[in-house]
Amino acid sequence: MPGAPTDYLANERTFLAWVRTGITLVALGFVVARFNLLIRELGGNGASSPYANAFGIALVLLGVIVVVLAQLRQRNVRAALKAGTFIDSDRLLWLVTGAMVAVGVALAIYLLATA
Hints:
There is one protein chain. The protein is an all-alpha fold and 115 residues long. It has one domain (5-114). It has helices spanning 5-42, 50-83, 91-114. Helix 1 (5-42) packs antiparallel against helix 2. 14% of the residues are buried. The model has no long low-confidence stretch (mean pLDDT 86).
């Protein structure tokens, strides 16, 4: 039995929430990388770090990966709803949670090392 229209709309809202998360990660990565460049250009004494640029790029890439995975998840859930075979999965949640924990720990280490 196919899903109800509200199921499809909920799937769409979930996808859009994941897209917002991805956009936020991309924006944060851009800010981290560009702020590091600004500090370097202004001649900050030791404030600029080669790791900040790499960290910013990693955040941008993580944001892109989140959006791609969200699209794949949305497509799979939609197909499962159409077929009436939907089974809830939290793999994407765990993947993004693990990535964000790793990013948070790396950022904390970076901040401690540059303080």
